[in-house]
Amino acid sequence: MPSETVLIIGGGPAGLYAARGVADLGLPVVLVEKREHLGGTPMASYYASLTPHLEDAGTAITRMVNEISNDPLVEILLQTRVTSGQGDLGDFHITVVSKSGETRELRVGSIIVATGFDHFDPGRETQMYGYYEFEDVLTLVDAEKMLKEKRFVRPSTGEPPKRICFIQCVGSRDRR
Description:
By secondary structure, this protein is an alpha/beta fold. It is about 25% helix and about 25% strand. Strands 5-2-1-9 form a four-stranded parallel β-sheet, with helices on one face. A three-stranded antiparallel β-sheet has the order 6-7-8, with no helix packed on it. α1 (about 15-25) packs parallel to α3 (about 55-70).
């Protein structure tokens, strides 16, 4: 018999949003997150805000976590990884292992993969854009930290910049 349980892999904004939506449909959810906390890259990298409404990242993530934390339809497994899976639509057999080594078998009907991303380091990967060459060349993570602190300045002088240039999607087409 097919399972109605939905496995969501990843506890960042997409995984949290998916968990809320699935639970709102009345279906049970198992949310697996490898980190020790929910929130994904926006929390790990101290984002200042989230699009599309530019809401404070901490506030938005906290709200999303609170919306699912006490929902009886949502089971949250932190510091846990999916190690294997088999089966077919409506009947997947998934093995998860916690950081403490506890192995658990899950039977789910569908899977949502919301594993997020890692920031691309333009200097180390390509040696382009002057990231490690010029003090005032920043990544999004660098800029987000300054925005969150409400102190956006040139690292070389500590003064606010007169002009800013953004290069978007650096590394997004890199095959590695």
